[in-house]
Amino acid sequence: MDYEIKTQGKFKFVEEGEGEPLVLLHGLFGALSNFGGLIEYFRRYNKVVVPLLPLFDLNILDTSVAGLAKYVHKFIETMEYTNVHLLGNSLGGHVGLVYLLKHPEAPIKSLTLTGSSGLFENGMGETYPKRGDYEYIRKKTELTFYDPAMATKELVDEVFDITTNRLKVIKIITLAKSAIRHNLGEELRDIKIPTLLVWGLNDTVTPPMVGEEFHKLIPNSELHFIDKCGHAPMMEQPDEFNQILHPFLQKLGSK
Questions:
Q1: Which pTM value belongs to this model?
Q2: d(C-alpha 15, C-alpha 140), whole Å
Q3: Does position 129 have pLDDT exceeding 70, yes or no?
């Protein structure tokens, strides 16, 4: 599915549908394709928004979780969204958390984390970019999923292209190290908004115990596991993911 990429000032984003904004934050190797199932389902009920995070475009000092959180803050402010439902996968979840902790006044109504970093992750960034080794990249990409067939040639090609660009590799490693350093821990008790945690039972990057720890630390949270599912539940098991997310949003007055 191709979506129109809109531009407002320095921001590039996809915006589909009407209603309360559902803002989706992708991870380190994430792209629009990760959210196809979510966009198609929720555009009937919400204004589904995917800002294209500038993973490779920030200056090196801002290439960090905090730098991306600042970008998300400016984006939501510029777009004048209210009653926002924020959803983040992997690094995107971490960025959402840092944004909320820095801006408790932000117009965010709910938070959904799926395979989020912020407490613990088996860092991909340290060893990930072996430049020019396609087979290595394919195997690493497969590890993201329970079903290795999810690592399509198109997806592996996207990751491979990133890892053959020296500057992008430096940015990826910088962001991965920033995520590992920026451990949130007890700060998470300050997240008071309703929070949905959706974890793959077979996630090897942020294992199920990470979801349990988030649940323990975030006061107003509920935790759901999806079986036969890895680090990107909204991508690997979209129907089951949507069946968990939709009632959660409905409870909060979204359609």
A1: 0.94
A2: 31
A3: no
